[in-house]
Fold this protein.
Amino acid sequence: MTRKMKPELGASTSAHGEESVTPERIVQMLRAQGTSMSEVARVVGKSPVSVRRVIYGESKSRFIANTIAAFLEVPVDTLWPGAYPDRYTRSAPGVLARLHRALQVAVGSKPNHVEEVA
């Protein structure tokens, strides 16, 4: 695969006032780099539909988004500002407690109180 020079970014303003690249522009940029959604899908081992959904913001996948950004040689945050933070703030103990309660409900037992560890 031959890489061409990086195309100019076409930006639009998001609802939060941040400039983001339109999905259509991301597809154009991939084509300008000599690749396609299908090629990205092949590289990540997912379907082209999954790649399209990430590009159009219908679903999230950090792995697919990072791969697209790598193909385009731009930061992920340039393509999807704020969509893929460097760090998530979910509490692991809180997630485990909710999972424990859900499993108890699924097997038909009464959920016990599970203390969350700070």
